[in-house]
Amino acid sequence: MNESGDVYREFKADLQGDVIRPGEMRTFRVSRLAASRREFVVTRKRIVAVRRVVSPEKDYSAFKATIAAAVEDIKLEIRDQHQQTRTEVRSVRHDVLAAVKASPAEYVKLVCELGSLFLVFSLAVRFALKIELVNPAFAVFMLFACALYWSMARMKQRSEKRSKHPQA
After folding, report:
1. Residues 6 or more apart in contact with residue 12 via CB below 8 angstroms
2. Are 30 and 7 in contact (CB under 8 A)?
3. Are 52 and 15 in contact (CB under 8 A)?
4. How far apart are CA 17 and CA 7, in angstroms?
5. Do residues 142 and 127 lie in contact, with contact meaning Cβ atoms separated by under 8 Å?
6. What span, in angstroms and rounded, lies between the C-alpha atoms of 93 and 49?
7. pLDDT 10s digit of each residue in the chain, 168 long?
8. Does 48 lie in the same domain as 92?
């Protein structure tokens, strides 16, 4: 081992017994090396750092265990949220498919509502931010078409209700 390792070991041994109050500074002169003398200025912050270096395996193993436990908790939480999301998607999908099977007019209404929402959004983005998601002429034409299809689907639903429940 070289002499600089011995200097550090001697410095560390000096630090083990000393207690330095906050704000206090001490200078350690090590005269081990004949060619050059070294000074170590120690503050409270540096003592904490040196003491942490003294027992790295204890701190590292505790840190590693903490991180491993946190990772496992996150994995379980993600898995639970994934299962919950899948359950919700299945139920919504089932509801939408049941509505479509019960009445194709309901499907047309849903598509028209979603399409008109997207078209209005794209027109708002076009005029507010000058970003063209959809050609504005096409968007206006499709808004009228969606409104027409939506009104036709609604009229179809009303006529189906009247035929199922005739008024006396």
Report:
1. 50, 54
2. yes
3. no
4. 17
5. no
6. 58
7. 445 556 566 666 665 555 555 555 554 444 444 334 444 445 444 443 333 334 455 678 888 888 999 999 999 999 999 999 999 999 988 887 887 787 788 888 989 999 999 999 999 999 999 999 999 999 999 999 999 999 999 999 898 888 888 775
8. no
- The burial of 153, by beta-carbon neighbours within 10 Å (0-12 exposed, 13-18 middle, 19 or more buried), is given as buried
The pTM for the full model equals 0.42
Residues 116 and 129 in one domain: yes
Separation between Cα atoms, residue 153 and residue 107, nearest integer Å: 9
44 shares a domain with 89 = no
Is the same domain home to 126 and 74?
no
The domain containing residue 132 runs over which residues? Answer: 103-163
**Backbone phi, psi, residue 38, to 5°:** -120, 145
